[in-house]
Specification:
By secondary structure, the chain is α/β, with parallel strands linked by helices. The chain has 10 helices and 13 strands. The strands form 2 sheets. It has a 9-stranded mixed beta sheet, sandwiched between helices. Strands 3-2-6-7 form a 4-stranded mixed beta sheet. Strand 6 and strand 7 form a beta hairpin. The longest helix is centred in the last third of the chain and has 16 residues. The two termini are 33 Å apart. The model has no long low-confidence stretch (mean pLDDT 93).
Length: 318
């Protein structure tokens, strides 16, 4: 196998405090970029998590989980507390309330992160920088924009899961406009049907995916070569260059969908890091299968590559 590109992930790590049937809240490691880092590493790619983690108990738990999954920690720990999300699950679907002020994963300076990207470019060559989710909410988006411009100048590939969270933003129109501006930097882009609704599309469906990709490229994401659109239980659509493929999701007994999109995108990005010329059909199939396995488990528990390959032998589409 050719030398693998290194994946660097910037974004929130938090504790998902999931409400249980008896009213208690069970803390579980989470955060979309954090989940994605685990998924990509378990797929077999070299992954570095860049955002600071707290020195508190939750932060140490988050760090330990990343290390168990083979992720390299890229920055020193922070004195700030770990971010929290209160999660309630209804019929398998999670809803979130976030506590994000003065938290560890926002405790970084653009200059410090820029120096790290330069050092990593020297050490490993230009890598893949993945951003998204709560980082895109103003004013954090301004720091991200500056880092993406630097990374692009250094020759990095920009990966992005926009993962819109309008319920957290104080100014939703400003948030949406900021996301659109950031999308212009993406080489690889993921959006869900829910994300597309926040961006202005009414009831987007998988049958509309080719037209949606064309619209995304023409309006905001003209650089994006690889675009994945996910449609929940329906499945997903992947376009690599001019080639687009739609695929139904495998059948699975769903426990919940926490981290399903993160697992999907982590496997896509890992596949491209490990095998840049892999067939889009293979990438999409394995990513959907990994997401399905995650949905059969409580919380975000991405599978290893071996688990996904074993599942693929018996998986059936919906």
């Amino acid at each position: 196998m050719a030398h693998a590109n290194h994946i660097y992930i910037l974004g929130e790590a938090l504790m998902d405090c999931v409400r249980q049937a008896d009213g208690r809240f069970l803390p579980l490691a989470g955060g979309s970029p954090y989940n994605m880092a685990r998924a990509a590493s378990l797929r077999g790619a070299p992954v570095h998590y860049l955002s600071p983690l707290s020195k508190d108990t939750f932060g140490r738990q988050l760090a330990a989980q990343l290390q168990r999954d083979g992720v390299t920690l890229g920055t020193a720990a922070s004195q700030a507390p770990t971010s929290l999300a209160m999660v309630q699950i209804h019929e398998g679907q999670p809803s979130y309330s976030f506590y994000r002020e003065g938290v560890a994963d926002r405790d970084y300076r653009v200059e410090t992160m820029a120096a790290l990207l330069r050092d990593e470019t020297v050490a490993h060559g230009p890598g893949i920088l993945n951003v998204g989710s709560l980082l895109f909410i103003p004013p954090e988006n301004e720091k991200v924009q500056a880092l993406l411009e630097l990374a692009r100048a250094l020759g990095w590939t920009i990966s992005m899961d926009i993962n819109m969270r309008p319920q957290v933003a104080r100014d939703v129109p400003a948030y949406v406009e900021g996301v659109k501006a950031l999308m212009a930097q993406a080489d690889w882009l993921k959006a869900s049907d829910e994300d597309l609704q926040v961006l202005g599309w009414v009831a987007p469906a998988m049958a509309d995916a080719p037209a949606l990709v064309q619209a995304l490229r023409s309006q905001w994401s003209h650089r994006a070569k690889n675009i994945a659109l996910t449609f929940g239980a329906q499945g997903a659509y992947l376009q690599v260059g001019k080639r687009g493929i739609a695929m139904a999701a495998p059948r699975v007994a769903v426990v919940d969908t926490v981290g399903a999109g993160d697992t999907f995108w982590g496997n896509c990005v890992a596949d491209w890091a490990l095998q840049p010329e892999t067939e889009p059909h293979s990438t999409l199939a394995l990513a959907l299968q990994a997401a399905a396995i995650n949905c059969s488990r409580s919380g975000c528990q991405p599978p290893t590559r071996q688990e996904t390959q074993a599942f693929s032998a018996t998986a059936t589409p919906r």
